[in-house]
Amino acid sequence: MEFAESSRKKCAACFREFNKMEHLVDHMRTSYHSLHEPTCALCNKHCRSFDSLREHLIGPLPKQECKKLFKILGCEFCLSVLESPHALRLHQHRCRFSGVNYGTMSRPANKSTTGVDNGFSYHVVALACQMVDGGGNNGSMDVCARVCMVDEYENIIFHVYVKPPIPVPNYRYENSGIGGEHLRDGMPLKQVQRRIEEFLCNGEAMWKIRSPKAGKARILVGHHLHPLLQSLHLEYPSFMIRDTAAYPPLMKTNKLSNSLKYLTQTYLGYDIQAGVQDPYEDCVATMRLYLRMRNQVHQREDYPQASDPRNRNNFAPSRQSELERMSPEAMLTISRSDYYCWCLDSM
């Protein structure tokens, strides 16, 4: 009886135990547990991020039972668990990405514009920029000097050097590979803005895109997109942006951003940014991360976000007594996510 009472006060998602049911209800009200959280395939524990799930499975303080099985059957990249070591070997061969096709970028970028009509209809684009030093205090003013955009198939749809609007005191050549000769005949920033907007809007009027019902506009993928868009003097609706630096499942356990280099090595299985930074390489990495997150298979549910008005009363204070009589499993079924899961893009 004591065991049953204890389990009744144990969160069905993260397994935290509470002294009173009212404390468990308060926890569920603020934790936003949902089926969209990274979940251990062995014990079904919910984690707030994949880094947290990795710690649970691998360390530094893993659950020993899960660690032993995961070592035999677990994929170190997507953290799924397979039915046999043979199935795991086949899975990891497909799960681990190879490096990008550097041959694609071996040819110099067209100084005016690069556009590729690849015959595919694409709905998502990845954007990356290469910055140089525009001066400011301690060289803190970044100026965009090179832009690259790719589609879902990793084809270049736009790649150009950008003519800086101000003098550049430091090209950061060791990291950027860019010199004055690259930017002398670069495309003016205003023209770059128009081209990027054309790709993003895809024939839609900008005022339509500001509505969540935008139909033709493309989803924009990138890493730390806010400062990047600022450097380009561009605005794009937040609900159309997928930022791998700000996506909760890809963030650190302390809710800070991971670097793109770390995310690529950890979740895709190869290294980037080893020498001169290549914006095409960054575009491909962010697109692959986005597609990996989007292709997660989660159970469909009506109104999956806590912010939806239809979920407003799920954990309302007026329902406190009713909630305290519910089982932890029943409370988990009405709990919703506080972030937009990218798997919803595929629905």
TrEMBL record:
InterPro entries: REX4_DEDDh_dom, REXO1/3/4-like, Ribonucl_H, RNaseH-like_sf, RNaseH_sf, Znf_C2H2_type
GO MF, one annotated term: 3'-5' exonuclease activity
CDD domains membership: REX4_like
One annotated GO biological process: rRNA processing
Region (Disordered): 300-324
Compartments, as annotated in UniProt: Nucleus
Any one GO cellular component localisation term in the record: nucleus
Keywords: Exonuclease, Hydrolase, Metal-binding, Nuclease, Nucleus, Zinc, Zinc-finger
Ranges for domain C2H2-type: 9-38
Superkingdom of this protein's organism: Eukaryota
PANTHER family: RNA EXONUCLEASE 4, RNA EXONUCLEASE REXO1 / RECO3 FAMILY MEMBER-RELATED
Stated family: Belongs to the REXO4 family.
Protein name: RNA exonuclease 4
Organism: Gossypium hirsutum (Upland cotton)
Lineage, highest ranks first: Eukaryota, Viridiplantae, Streptophyta, Embryophyta, Tracheophyta
The encoding gene: LOC107888642
